[in-house]
Amino acid sequence: MASTELGTISSRYLRSLYESYPEMASYLGLHEYDGRISDPSESARRARITELEGFRESLARLDPAHLASNDLLDYELLRSNVESELYRLRDLRSFEWNPLIYQVDVSEYTKRSYAPLPERVRRMVSYLGQVPDYLAESFRNLRDQLPRHPVETAIEAFEGQIRYLRGDVREVVGQVEDAALLREFERACDGAASAIEDFVTRLRERLPNSNDDFAIGSENYRKMLLFGEMVDMPLERVLEVGQRNLRENEELLAEATGRANPGGDLEETLRQLGRDHPTAEGLIPETAEMLEDIRSFLIEHDIVSVPSEVRCQVQETPPFMRWGFAFMDSPGPFERVATEAFYYVTPVEEGWSPEEKEAWLSRFSYSTLRDVSVHEAYPGHYLHFLHLKSAPTDASKVLTSYAFVEGWAHYCEQMMVEAGYGDARLEVAQLTEALLRNCRYVVSILMHTQGMSVEEATRFFVEHGHMEELPARKEAVRGTFDPGYLNYTLGKLLILKLREDYRRERGEAFTLREFHDKLLSFGAPPVPLARRLMLTGTADGVL
């Protein structure tokens, strides 16, 4: 009976989630929600809070002690997500201070051919036609005095969207032969671009009155970890764990540097690694070969199941998405037509000077590219996506944890080195990336709960993350509006602790593949929830 009632609650909750956030539903592959945009109004928020309180009451009437494993997974996922959304709407209230959450995005309509292009353009026209009212309502939500760094970042992001709507998207849509549809699109696109320009102008007007008051505070930070990641620990303890891991990785990096470049220091070693990179012409094909090598290692060493022969496609990053270095773009778990996954690698630009091209390619040193490919593709995000498609329920496919998703991919970087993949140069690259994530972890807590400034955080990234000033500052600024970016390291550490305790319980029966397959079988829940489902005994703490 409990299982049937839970299934009803789960279906109702997911439908309400899709109705409240139709853009998310479209991304998941539920294209009946295409062409719709979220309602940012105060009345919609009040209605959503009432709805969530109803779900909370319905779940409270169930007794989890009588639920089977998969039902317990759904029950806890639903409970956690209801509480997390209530926290965001009632306590965090980012709709008042973070204009970045109001970005509009039509790239999903152009990237994937899940329907004929004219049909996707019609849905895009519907979406774009709602943008002016959406942004006008969104701006009414914002406080008169806003934190400076999220506003500056939002202006930059919105200006990128304007360039996309004024340029790149029209090249794709221009392939449509229906002249009337093209005229509809032009009107809707021009209206949306003009609305974004007005939004940016109004944000700029708020800048002189902006401040550095971005911290969410200790109580909100504690709730973020508790409701989002099921981590219920004193923040002092959470910080201590991260600081200790940073020191450990600094020591390991010094040792790996000595093996990779005997007698050389870290900076010289990193310069040497940067000079060993693919050519501009070889970047894409060599990356594809690298993925095959990593995939073969996984299979030969029985590290994790690879549940599909279908490869992700290595491609140049589309021009309108070239803000990143390399990243995975997998379809949603419910996508049935455009099921291709793309591993995008950003190439050099034709107009760059030889020095600029070399500087860009140096970021793709073979060691760094291999580490990034482990994170993004095998056995990181792409392999996780393949397993996620087989998660037992719709709730476990949809309700995912930031720390699990990014923590798994980050854990894979370290795990592959531990398993014997690569050499000391790869370990240097892996540990350098680990220190970047260590810095995010520590800086996030200190900025939001102990008054660390952006300038102090920048210096922390320079000193401990071995970064140049500009990227270090960008990382520090990101922390002002994404305090959850500690989750890369937090998720990795949670998985490592779970693996240690699971190995202890299983004894000689433990295998890496069985541990990984079981962990991934749940989808991407908060790691402490996976821990409850995997361990029979009680181990000492989640970290």
Q: What is the chain-wise order of helices and strands?
A: HHHHHHHHHHHHEEEHHHHHHHHHHH
Helix content: 55-70%
Shape: globular
Number of helices: 23
Please, how many domains?
A: 2
Spatial order of the strands in the main sheet? 1-3-2
Q: Give the terminus-to-terminus CA distance.
A: 36 Å
Helix/strand/pairing class, anyone? Answer: mainly alpha
Major beta sheet summary: 3 strands, mixed
Kindly summarize this structure in a few lines:
The chain has two domains: 208 residues, no CATH class; 270 residues, no CATH class. The chain is mostly helical and 543 residues long. The protein is built from 23 helices and three strands.
Feature tags:
mainly alpha, 2% strand, 3 strands, 543 residues, single chain, 2 domains
Topology:
Layout lengths: L1 H19 L1 H7 L13 H19 L8 H24 L14 H5 L5 H25 L6 H26 L5 H28 L11 H12 L5 H26 L5 H10 L7 H18 L12 E4 L9 E4 L12 E4 L8 H9 L3 H11 L4 H8 L5 H5 L3 H17 L5 H26 L4 H12 L3 H13 L5 H20 L5 H9 L6 H8 L9
Parallel strand pairs: 1-3
Antiparallel strand pairs: 2-3
Helix pairs in contact: 1-2, 1-3, 1-4, 3-4, 4-9, 6-8, 7-8, 10-18, 12-14, 14-17, 14-18, 17-18, 17-21, 18-19, 18-20, 18-21, 19-20, 21-23
